[in-house]
Amino acid sequence: MIHIVFNEADVAVLQQAIELEPAMAGDVILIRDDYAVGPLADIYVAEGRQARKDWWREVLAGGDYEHLVDKEGYDDYETIAQVVGRMRRSEEEQVWIWAAQNKHDVCGYYWLLHFMKEFQGRVQILYLNNLPFINEKGSIFYPVNLYEIPAKEFLKARKLARDITLSEFEVDPDEWLKLCSEGKMVRLLEGGKKLVQADEDFYDNDLKKFVMADWQKASKIIHQFLAKAKHTTGDAYLLWRLKKMIALGLFDVQGKVGHMKDFEIKWKS
Hints:
The chain is of the alpha/beta class. The protein has 2 domains: 2-179, Rossmann fold, CATH 3.40.50; 204-267, Orthogonal Bundle (Arc Repressor Mutant, subunit A), CATH 1.10.10. β5 (133-134) and β6 (140-141) form a beta hairpin. The protein has 9 helices and 12 strands. It is globular and about 65 Å long. The strands form 4 sheets. Strands 2-1-3-4-7 form a 5-stranded mixed β-sheet, with helices on both faces. Helix content is 39%, strand content 18%. It has helices at residues 8-20, 46-60, 76-89, 103-116, 154-157, 166-180, 204-208, 218-228, 235-247; strands at 2-5, 27-30, 95-100, 123-128, 133-134, 140-141, 162-163, 186-191, 194-198, 216-217, 251-255, 263-267.
């Protein structure tokens, strides 16, 4: 069995669940890219893949995650090629795709379907959409991310596994390719599996609200945004947007504009 997740933090909690339930035994595979941001045009051909890689290289340049662009093991296409190879070599092999109610997981699911269609009937989806779980304190909650769910609760979640239907394999990739062709940079989840798109500056106005008249490190501004904003995204993307606004002269800045703890910004004097 092959389990596929879309957040690094999901890996450990799912591995803990597998230790509690041997019937779930299998490898946990991580899809690393965040397909909720960035260009998607021609994403399944070499030119589109390279364009996306070049975009990430720009976004991460001089920042905290610059080293990840060309890091070995961070190519989703190599990862999924290995999964496809295993599925072709063994007709007994199955894939379980785990996704929570967030844009990151849903975009990953859509991206992944392109590679799974030939295995219809052997690919299961566990979409934890608006389902209640019990947290460590015994209270009911509705997780936005898989890693929020205690490992023992995954034993309940596994009963939700179902085949991705032939209809879904036909309709969902078409919906994804339509989104890919629109030339937008930000994807948002409206509910269920419905995604809408926005321009690359979508988060800017909310991000600016956390810039004050006094000096603050970029890291503090980003962390406040992540804790309080309605719509959030990864800190690497937010750091890139701060740098874009600095380049436009919107803020005063002191320190080297690089890693998010290296510089401070405030409103223009």
